[in-house]
Amino acid sequence: MKSEKGQSLVEFALIVPVLVLLLLGIVDFARIFHAYLTIDHAGREAARAASIGKDEAAITSIAVNQGSTIGLTTGQVTVSTGSSGSNATITIRYPVTFLTPIIGRIVNPLTLKDTTIMRVE
Question: Burial level of 13, CB count in 10 A (0-12/13-18/19+)?
Fold first, then answer.
């Protein structure tokens, strides 16, 4: 019978890249999910401000402040307000970068978009 001392080392070396890719994929998914929840919350808060009659600069500032954990900027927030009785629309677009280069090449650039509509009182 031959010695099998290196067998587990070879098996481990074969499975490590798959495990690392899986782990980084989980981290990427968690980051994207966090970013989506953050822009959804920022959109709701900005729409609430729009519904009570704040101006566009204040609405954009509220959205940016609520999205500060992901680095949301004023260029990513679009505000469309109307008069009393009409709808205010807040649209936030956030580009996502992947940590995993392989997944980033497969998926290509990903942009999350959140649109919130609320009636102006």
Answer: exposed
Identify whether 42 is part of a domain.
yes
Whether residue 1 lies inside any domain: the answer is no
What's the domain range around 85?
A: 7-119
How do residues 28-75 score in pLDDT, each as one tens digit?
999 999 999 999 999 999 999 999 989 999 999 999 999 999 999 999
Q: Is the four-CA dihedral 111, 30, 59, 46 of positive or negative sign?
A: positive
Decide if 2 is inside a domain. Answer: no
Please report whether residue 67 resides in a domain: yes
Query: Measured between alpha carbons, how far is residue 19 from residues 10, 12, 14, 39, 76 in Å?
Result: 15, 10, 10, 30, 35
- Tell me which DSSP letter residue 103 carries: H
Tell me if 113 sits within 8 A of 95, measured CB to CB: no
